[in-house]
Amino acid sequence: MIGLSTYSFFWEHSDRAVEPLSLRGAFEATSALGVGLFQICDFAPLEAMSDRELAEAAATARDLDLDVQLGTKGLEPVHLARYLRLAEAFDARLVRSMVTSPTSSPSPEQTGAWLDEVLPEYQAAGVVLALETYEQVATADLVALVTARGGDHLGICLDPANVVARLEHPRDCVTTAAPHVVNVHVKDFAFARQPGWVGFTYSGAPMGTGMHDYEHLLATVRPRERGIDEVVEHWLPWQGDPETTVRTERAWTRATVEHLRAAREPAAAPAA
């Protein structure tokens, strides 16, 4: 299924917008595009919501016929237990997280111990924990972490754009992670020369215009065949003023959704 996320409305949610978009407003904008999934990802107000506010937000999603997923950072058991309760409030079946967070960079041993503590609770609740590919952890190490535990309730949230910062090639990330992917973050990306030709900027690009070989991802991961959701994000730079930035962000979202709807999974390459 195609989905949007809070990162699809990054600037519109921010305090730099003229009228910051509420979670309900993001749900409604998602529904208006005919999209049936929304991932509430790294959205700070979520953790401050009262039980009543959570119930009202979940009711809005149900009224709009939206499936909900959640996203956070970090693997501390207390934190992930909190997100499991939030997932239950939204009937969410997937929580995306990261090995590292702003407050923790656990050792491999600590990471494994934390996962071993929380995974039985996630499995009992029928919720999948998806660890995102990021520059802080090599994709091969993330795969090893997942495969060491097996099961259907731990997998990888694939975002090949992130790993460029550790000099991994996005295609290599896709190939390595493919068997363990349970969620895909979709955004295009490109390098551009800085003014004066001194260095580069690595940033977002309208879907289909940058360097992301999405056809390779579709052929390798086969998300539609496997029932893996494709969630739209952006790395849109600030466009100089709130109105232009929000207008551009909305245009990128529409264009990405249209690109995904038009895309078809290529046939898998024959074995050598």
Automatic annotation (TrEMBL):
UniProt organism field: Quadrisphaera setariae
Gene3D superfamilies: Divalent-metal-dependent TIM barrel enzymes (3.20.20.150)
Protein name (record): TIM barrel protein
InterPro entries with a match to the protein in the record: IolE/XylAMocC-like, Xyl_isomerase-like_sf, Xyl_isomerase-like_TIM-brl
Xylose isomerase-like TIM barrel domain segment(s): 79-255
Pfam families reported for this sequence: AP_endonuc_2 (PF01261)
